[in-house]
Amino acid sequence: MNERRLQGQHFIAMGTLLVLSLILPLPAQALEVEEVLQAFRDSYGWLDNVAMKIEWESESLSPDKWKKSVSDKDMENTQIRSLYETSHIKTDFFWSQEKGWHDIGEHYYMDQLTGRVARNTEGRPDRWSFNNGHFKEAGDFYVDYQFDEGDISWLSAEVYTDIMAFRGGAGALLEGRNVSFSLKRLTDLLTPDNVAISEETLDGEASCFIEAQCDYGHIELWLSPEHNYAMQQVILTKEFRKDLDWRGEKIYREDYQGTVVAKNIYATRIRKWSQMDGYFVPLVIEEQWLVSLDDEIEAKSQSTTKLSKIRLNPDFDALKAFQLDIYNDTYIDITDRETGDRCRVTWEDDKPVFKSDNKELAERAELFLETLTVRKVSTFTKMKRWTKRAGSKIGSFVSSMRRH
Question: What pTM value is reported for the model?
């Protein structure tokens, strides 16, 4: 009787383990290395087509801050002033596998001493609008549109190359690209041959820990089995005079003359997720830049990125996500840096006309033309421009008088 009872309990226990094995995520070592890496790559699938709002804030963590009271004369020193300024970006961001990306927003600095928007050397608020992106379908250009109601606007379109990935801003971060470490995405730096995988915990959560050494430096990566192996944290370490620089062209800081082992450390931590269409989308991302001198670590700066109003697979045409509204006197420059060719752009009947000896560049420029909506400069806008230029001259004069 006892033997049958024991056998029954044994079968029940085995059945329970079988059910649990089917419903619980597999531990890292139960998966092949390539399966883990592929799951990590797949975790970025939400970026195929997405629209969102992004807020980014950064500040210095230098130990020189707050050591003493800061005078007006101190604040005339750009290096000192930067310690007490926090950098802020608010943007509408669009990302598409086919169309590219488009980033439209505002960048400004806040003065930590006054709690107000910082002032530049001309005495004006240190803030500006930006509008840039990678327009794949429209000629495959990197586009930078500098626009100001009170000033002349100009539009630059350069034939896109991989080296321009560092201009992706928050988009580079979201797709796993730390441009201070490498232009390559993190997923492209990891291979079954250069990684070691183990099971760990991170702040009490189950984690798949990956360690790797590549040409660009050392990688420590934590993935969440409970979130389809999305990234929890990554620490990237680049050693002076040893690892490749971010471009992969030469040794990083090969001119370093110090006698101690010096390293730059870039740490990224996902603080909050949201589940959408089977993906775990990061909502809050924290970053730190640190410097290590003989293992004595000093934090240099920190930043926080917040995502909101996320829409997967939006109607980009309805959102006009990859269109540009420009004035009919905008200065336009279209170039191909690799060949040195440039399009000559003139305005005819309020329409830009592109001419180039390079037929391919001219054809690409015509594709780009389709993304432009042109509006006339109003009399009111002309008056604002004149007022701003006059105010700028007055501000410069006042600033120079204060210095003397």
Answer: 0.83
